[in-house]
Design brief:
- The complex is a heterodimer of chains A (57) and B (742).
- With 57 residues, chain A is α+β, with helices and mostly antiparallel strands.
- Chain A has one domain: Roll (SH3 type barrels).
- In chain A, strands 1-2 form a two-stranded antiparallel sheet.
- The N terminus of chain A is likely disordered.
- Chain B has 4 domains: 63 residues, Phosphorylase Kinase, domain 1; 262 residues, Rossmann fold, CATH 3.40.50; 207 residues, 3-Layer(aba) Sandwich (Dimethylsulfoxide Reductase, domain 2), CATH 3.40.228; 135 residues, Barwin-like endoglucanases.
- In chain B, strands 6-5-18-17-16-7-8 form a 7-stranded mixed beta sheet. A 6-stranded mixed beta barrel of chain B has the order 23-27-24-26-25-28.
- In chain B, strand 16, helix 16 and strand 17 form a beta-alpha-beta unit.
- Chain B is globular, with a radius of gyration of 25 Å.
- The chains are: A alpha+beta (57), B alpha/beta (742).
- At the A-B interface, helix 1, helix 2 and strand 2 of A face loops of B.
């Protein structure tokens, strides 16, 4: 599996739409330093383990 | 093609070509073949004995390909309707005349109604999955690409949607097909158990999956669990056959999860590290004890327990799933439940488990399952006009960019939210095959002012609706790719039949007329070369190799190989496998899997069951036909001359029916007739009817229309009765009565 070849290749913003559909969410969400769960930037604590997550502007 | 490097040699009078076959005619696979040609005729097809995909095997449909390719009744050149729709009167025209007519209609619709009033439709498992979206979005500038009128888009899309939001990627059973060494790949492990759910993979090969591989693994010791209302060949050899009531699969999977969680048979490390929402899932599963599941699904509780334990203790185990999951209102729920089963038992992306799969070498254009090629070229306003997405937000986030078939039907019927002025059918015979309420769809399509059908043969859909019929090339007449999933394969053109053109040629030509900036390629070869760039080869170089195998990686989530940010985890919003789906909650949907009764069932409509006392399931695949294809083959019809309705001998006796009798199958929507087959492998409360029947030997013109309504079981199934996600419809679980046809 070559993860780069596919994503480099897709034209314009197509990868933001359907294939691998949560890419947009995934890149905006913030990673919990303890369990690795990605949380919406609005959350102060991790949904999974309750650890405070870094706040982004 | 000039300077072709396709692999060919001479054997006596025959020229032999090594390549891959897809469609048309076809299926969901892409087996390696040897074409034997003499002059300009295809004489024989054999499975390529050197292939690591099908190992020389080939089904009767492909072996019989010469009969279909050489059929003198194929559509030979573009034809324009000469009489009224349904009269079957045609005038031969040139390709340029055909393109002129199409261009004129498209430009008028753009001007008077907007591009969104153009809808395209394809059949299943085709090369067309990527190229027709490109036609729709880039050439027609419309957001409406569809799978015809398939209710609930009940063919893989519910499963794709479930995988998309829950795991972020497609998965496929790992039967060692990912590596050229196949069963000798030292990294691969043979699944100790394969659970076949709603699928008969020997006959109905899934997307890029060959049922023979399960037989190979059985010979090596793999055990089976089969969930199916019918005693298939695999079910008869399974350790557990769970004979489920059609449309009641969710309770079975939730009860299996219940057992696995209660008995702590799940993979605790994986659950802790890589899933979100386990506690909530466990709470939901408490409602579904095996006894409760037995009440709903008819599957004995002890069998559910036994199957759950067998699956959970096997390392590895995997699931081969099928269309029957999609064809229920709870299709997304069933799929979510099965995804959870795979995940919590630690079988996700491990050798011999459920492999997370993308297109080989990242080549996800031209002939791949992706349906979004060109979608980004549309403005946000135009994308938002895609039919169905306003009411069903999951359609915006699934792994497919289709318009919702039920919503297209409603738009044609009501003119809302806007009228449909043009309908483009590419290798689909939609109201004969996948559409439910066939007569309703027939009436609707008659209302669309301009209809084009691209097909190798004249079908009921062409005769009833088409203003233009364009002759589609078959697989042996096509230069293309097979990149759905892996390995990457070339499809080489060997013959030219009359004036037929490939889907790629037609789309490129129209694209250059209507929106040349989006179609910069001089010819199809250039377009294929562009699509192949990620693989680092040209089409000619691929032809020379025939097949290219990408590197296989397991546990990609541990190494940051799934997410665009390169972080470990899954390509979901949480980076986890979403056992509980926050996004569903946001959309007002149940964030956990749950059972939904079919709209017509012993529970939903007990009163109606007095008149229609049997459960009707339909659409399992025969050896001889792929959906509505192959009916014109005299050889295959010799094996299978008429549509068959299978029933338990006890049921037959009750209704005075004998083997071979013509039987009326009837419910509140209509009746059709098929020939009775008596088989104790089906529950006496259920009958199974075949789908997609039409009779090319009957009169083409209306009202006969190739006998389209005589035996078409989808006269009896319903449109617009999906579950709350918009995906999944009861195509295989409605009700009926039967009686002998005099």
């Amino acid at each position: 599996m070559s993860k780069d070849k596919g994503s480099k290749f897709v034209d314009d913003a197509t990868n933001k739409f359907t294939n691998y559909s949560f890419s947009d969410y995934a890149t905006k969400n913030v990673k919990c330093p303890k369990c690795g769960m990605f949380n919406p930037p609005t959350r102060e604590k991790c949904k999974k383990c309750g650890t405070p997550v870094p706040q982004t502007k | 093609m000039e300077g072709s490097k396709k692999v060919q040699w001479q054997e006596g009078d025959y020229t032999v070509t090594r390549t891959c076959a897809w469609t048309a005619p076809g299926c969901h696979d892409g087996c390696a073949v040897l074409y034997y040609t003499k002059g300009d005729k295809l004489v024989k097809v054999e499975g390529d004995p050197e292939s690591k995909y099908n190992f020389g095997r080939l089904c009767m449909r492909c072996l019989n390909m010469p009969e279909l390719v050489n059929d003198p009744n194929r559509v030979k050149w573009p034809m324009k309707r000469a009489g009224e729709r349904g009269e079957n009167k045609w005038e031969r025209i040139t390709w340029d005349e055909a393109y002129d007519i199409i261009e004129k209609n498209v430009r008028e619709i753009w001007r008077d109604y907007g591009p969104e009033s153009i809808v395209t439709a394809i059949g299943t498992g085709r090369n067309t999955w990527s190229i027709v979206p490109k036609l729709t979005y880039s050439a027609f500038k419309s957001p409406n690409f569809s799978m015809g009128f398939l209710a609930g888009d009940s063919c893989y899309l519910p499963r794709a949607a479930a995988m998309g939001t829950m795991i972020g990627d497609f998965f496929i059973i790992d039967a060692s097909q990912l590596d050229e060494r196949r069963y000798d790949n030292p990294e691969w492990k043979r699944p100790e158990v394969v659970c076949i759910w709603g699928n008969n993979p020997m006959i109905s090969n899934g997307d890029g999956f060959l049922g023979h591989w399960i037989v190979d693994m059985m010979k090596m010791g793999t055990k089976l669990i089969v969930v199916d209302p019918y005693l298939t060949w695999f079910a008869s050899r399974a350790d557990y056959w769970l004979q489920v009531r059609p449309g009641a699969d969710t309770p079975v999977v939730l009860a299996m999860l219940n057992v696995i969680i209660e008995e702590e048979l799940y993979d605790k490390e994986f659950v802790e590290k890589w899933t979100y929402g386990f506690e909530e899932l466990a709470e939901r599963c408490k409602q579904y004890t095996p006894e409760k599941a037995e009440e709903i699904s008819w599957v004995p509780a002890d069998k559910i327990r036994g199957a759950a334990r067998l699956f959970a203790k096997a390392k590895p185990a995997s699931v081969q799933w099928g269309l029957a999951i999609d064809t229920q209102r709870a299709g997304v729920s069933v799929a979510n439940g099965i995804c959870a089963l795979v995940a919590i038992t630690g079988n996700l992306d491990v050798p011999g488990g459920q492999h997370i799969i993308r297109a080989a070498f990242g080549v996800d254009r031209l002939a791949h399952v992706s349906s979004d090629w060109g979608f980004a070229e549309l403005s946000p306003e135009m994308r938002a006009k895609r039919l169905g997405v306003d009411d069903y937000p999951l359609f915006k986030y699934g792994l497919a960019a289709t318009s919702r078939g039920d919503s297209v039907l409603e738009a044609i019927e009501t003119g809302k939210p806007y009228p449909v002025r043009m309908y483009w059918m590419e290798s689909t015979n939609t109201f004969t095959c996948c559409s439910s309420e066939s007569k309703r769809v027939y009436a609707a399509l008659k209302k669309v002012p301009f209809v084009v059908n691209v097909d190798p043969v004249l079908t009921p859909s062409s005769v009833a609706f088409a203003d233009l019929v364009l002759p589609a090339a078959m697989s042996v007449e096509r230069d293309s790719l097979r990149n759905w999933w892996t390995p990457l394969r070339s499809i080489s053109k060997v013959l030219q039949y009359e004036e037929c053109k490939t889907d790629e040629e037609i789309v490129l030509k129209l694209g250059k007329r209507l929106n040349p900036e989006s179609f910069p390629w001089k010819n199809v070869e250039e377009m294929i070369d562009w699509a192949l760039k990620p693989a680092g080869v040209t089409f000619k170089e691929l032809e020379e190799k025939v097949v290219m195998w990408p590197e296989v990686n397991y546990k990609k989530y541990e190494r940051g190989l799934l997410r665009p940010d390169g972080e470990p985890g899954f390509n979901t919003d949480t980076g986890m496998v979403n056992l509980y789906q926050d996004i569903f909650e946001e959309w007002g949907l149940d964030p956990l899997p749950d059972h939904m009764e079919p709209p017509y069932s012993p529970v939903s409509t007990p009163q109606l069951m007095k008149e229609y006392p049997l459960i009707l399931t339909a659409g399992s695949r025969p050896w001889e036909f792929f959906h509505s294809e192959h009916r014109q083959s005299a050889t295959l019809r010799e094996f299978h001359p008429n549509p068959r309705v299978t029933m338990n001998p006890e049921t037959a006796e009750k209704y005075g029916i004998k083997e071979g009798d013509w039987v009326w199958i009837e419910n509140n929507l209509g009746r059709v007739k098929q020939v009775a087959v008596l088989d104790p492998g089906i529950d006496p409360r259920v009958i199974h009817a075949e789908h997609a029947w039409w009779f090319p030997e009957k009169e083409a013109a209306e009202p006969t229309l190739y006998g389209i309504f005589d035996s078409n079981i989808n006269v009896l199934t319903t449109q617009c009765t999906t579950g709350p996600t918009g995906y999944g419809a009861p195509l295989k679980n409605t009700i009926c009565k039967i009686y002998k046809a005099e």
